[in-house]
C-alpha cells in the first residue's frame, strides 16, 4: 500500500562476555525489550568480529536469523558502530550481505574423518618446527606438486580481509564468486603468491611426509590435528545474512580496505 510504513523488526540481543558488551546489552534490553529466538526477526550481536563469527555459526545450528553487529569488542570490521538511539529504525533500513561458508572434510593419518563449516577460511598449519609439505589439487587435478610452507588456506570473500589479508592474500568483493588460495610463509616455490579460484572449485590438500611433518587443519574454530588429506568447497546451499548500516555496506568496507594506507 502506498505510504505504508515498514514494520520495525523484533530484536533479540546477544553479547560477548566482555564487560562493555554485557553492559550495552543490559541498556538495550531495558530500552527495547528482548524477543525470544522463535519470535525475533534479527539478532543484534554486541562484541567484536570473533563474536560475530560465533553468532553466525550458532545460526547454522538453529534458525539462521540476520545479524546486526555493534562493536563492543576489539576488532570490528564486521560490526556497525555502537549506538543506543533509534536502533530498530537502523536495523530496518540496514543493507544485507549474504555469505556462504566453506565445508572442510579432513582425514587424519589414522583414517578418521571430521567435517566443519568455515565462514572465514579453511587453513592448514604446520604443527612442529619443520615446514609442511603439501600437494594441492583443484577439481582433482594437481596444480602444485609440492608446496613447502608454514601453511596454506582457502578463504571466502567474507574472510578475505581477515587471516587471508594478514598472509598477503587478495581482498575479494562479496559478489565476486571467487575463493582465495593463499600460502602462509611459502618457502618453495618461493615466488608463489597463491591463486584466485572460481567459487565452485573443490580444493584438495595432501600432506606429504605427514608423520615427520604433522599438519593441522582448521575450519574457523574447529581444529583437526595430524591430517593427511583435506578438501574444501563452498556450500552455496547455505546462506547467512549480516546487516550493515545504510551507506556502510560490507562491499563499501571491502572497497575502502583496498585503499587503506
From TrEMBL:
NAD(+) binds at residues 49-50, 120-121, 150, 158, 161-166. The gene is nadK. This is NAD kinase. Keywords: ATP-binding, Cytoplasm, Kinase, NAD, NADP, Nucleotide-binding, Transferase. Gene3D superfamilies: Probable inorganic polyphosphate/atp-NAD kinase, domain 1, Probable inorganic polyphosphate/atp-NAD kinase, domain 2. Belongs to the NAD kinase family. InterPro entries: ATP-NAD_kinase_N, ATP-NAD_kinase_PpnK-typ_C, NAD/diacylglycerol_kinase_sf, NADK. Involved in the regulation of the intracellular balance of NAD and NADP, and is a key enzyme in the biosynthesis of NADP. Catalyzes specifically the phosphorylation on 2'-hydroxyl of the adenosine moiety of NAD to yield NADP. One of its GO terms (molecular function) is NAD+ kinase activity.
Amino acid at each position: 500500500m502506498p505510504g505504508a510504513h515498514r514494520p520495525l523488526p523484533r530484536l533479540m540481543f546477544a553479547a560477548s562476555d566482555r564487560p562493555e558488551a554485557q553492559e550495552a546489552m543490559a541498556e538495550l534490553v531495558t530500552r527495547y525489550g528482548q524477543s525470544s529466538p522463535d519470535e525475533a526477526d534479527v539478532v543484534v550481536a554486541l562484541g567484536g568480529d570473533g563474536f560475530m563469527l560465533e553468532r553466525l555459526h550458532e545460526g547454522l545450528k538453529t534458525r539462521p536469523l540476520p545479524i546486526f553487529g555493534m562493536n563492543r569488542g576489539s576488532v570490528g570490521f564486521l560490526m556497525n558502530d555502537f549506538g543506543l538511539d533509534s536502533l530498530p529504525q537502523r536495523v530496518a533500513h540496514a543493507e544485507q550481505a549474504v555469505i556462504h561458508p566453506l565445508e572442510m572434510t579432513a582425514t587424519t593419518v589414522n583414517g578418521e574423518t571430521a567435517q566443519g563449516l568455515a565462514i572465514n577460511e579453511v587453513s592448514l598449519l604446520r604443527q612442529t618446527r619443520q615446514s609442511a609439505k603439501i600437494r594441492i589439487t583443484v577439481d582433482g587435478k594437481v596444480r602444485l606438486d609440492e608446496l613447502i610452507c608454514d601453511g596454506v588456506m582457502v578463504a571466502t570473500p567474507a574472510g578475505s580481509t581477515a587471516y587471508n589479508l594478514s598472509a598477503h592474500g587478495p581482498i575479494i568483493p562479496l559478489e565476486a564468486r571467487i575463493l582465495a588460495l593463499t600460502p602462509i610463509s611459502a618457502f618453495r616455490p618461493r615466488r608463489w603468491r597463491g591463486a584466485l579460484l572460481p567459487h565452485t572449485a573443490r580444493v584438495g590438500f595432501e600432506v606429504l611426509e605427514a608423520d615427520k611433518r604433522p599438519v593441522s587443519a582448521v575450519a574457523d574454530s574447529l581444529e583437526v590435528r595430524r591430517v593427511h588429506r583435506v578438501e574444501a568447497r563452498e556450500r552455496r546451499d547455505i546462506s547467512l545474512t549480516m546487516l550493515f548500516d545504510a551507506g556502510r555496506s560490507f562491499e563499501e568496507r571491502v572497497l575502502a580496505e583496498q585503499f587503506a594506507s
